[in-house]
Amino acid sequence: MPAMTRSYLVLCFSLLIIQLPALAQSPAKKGSISDIRFIEGSWKAVAGDRSIDAVWSKPEGESMVGYVRVMKEGKVVLYELFAFEQTEQGLVALVRHFGPGLVSWEEKENPNHYDFLEAGNGQALFEKQGEATRVRYEKRSNDEFAIVVGKQQDGAWVFKDFWKFSRVK
User: Fold this and answer.
1) Which one in 27, 58, 118, 120 has a CA-CA gap of 20 to 30 Å to 39?
2) In what helix (H) or strand (E) does residue 141 lie, and over which residues does it extend?
3) The domain containing residue 154 runs over which residues?
4) Residue 142: inside a domain, yes or no?
5) pLDDT one digit per residue (tens) for the chain, 169 residues
6) Contacts of residue 138, Cβ cutoff 8 Å, sequence gap at least 6
7) What is the total count of domains within the chain?
8) Is residue 8 assigned to a domain?
9) CB of 144 closer than 8 Å to CB of 43
10) Which residue(s) pair with 153 in the sheet?
């Protein structure tokens, strides 16, 4: 083998060895507020005997906030406060639940924390920290989206509609 060819092969092999660690590590998908922007606005859902009102603000800066009110027989049974925030670790969803009288279900310093996993085609997927639960926000049309909850069953993620919202006009 000619010396020039051998030198070229050694150089290519060396460059490949140097790059292997970088190639082996897939970059974390951080997500952005724009991945969840499609839920902006006022929404209404019905789930069995419960009606759900939801409002999500226009994204501004690195955050987006929203609230949900769940009613049954004309009485509040649940309030939820949502914050989507862009952090150094990536996009996160923070959720707090309250009963009537704004009595918190979570401890003061511990909101439910969901880490961004992926987004695309009108969907954004998050996973709850410390629990094998995933939540997917799915845009189904300009006037409809769903919150879909996933749990593992027999080693696979199984998703079911939790709330299906229609835009309030």
Assistant:
1) 27
2) strand 133-141
3) 31-167
4) yes
5) 665 544 543 433 443 343 434 434 444 569 999 999 999 999 999 999 999 999 999 999 899 999 999 999 999 999 999 999 999 999 999 999 999 999 999 988 889 999 999 999 999 999 999 999 999 999 999 999 999 999 999 999 999 999 999 999 8
6) 122, 123, 145, 146, 147, 148
7) 1
8) no
9) no
10) 156
CA distance 94 to 84: 6
Does residue 93 lie in a domain region?
Answer: yes
CA pair distance 103, 39, nearest whole angstrom? 26
Q: Residue 54's domain is classified under what CATH number? A: 2.40.128.20
State the pTM of this model.
Answer: 0.79
Question: Angle at CA 27, nearest 5°, toward 22 and 33?
Answer: 160
Counted residue by residue, the chain has a size of: 169
Place of tokens 């769940």: 70
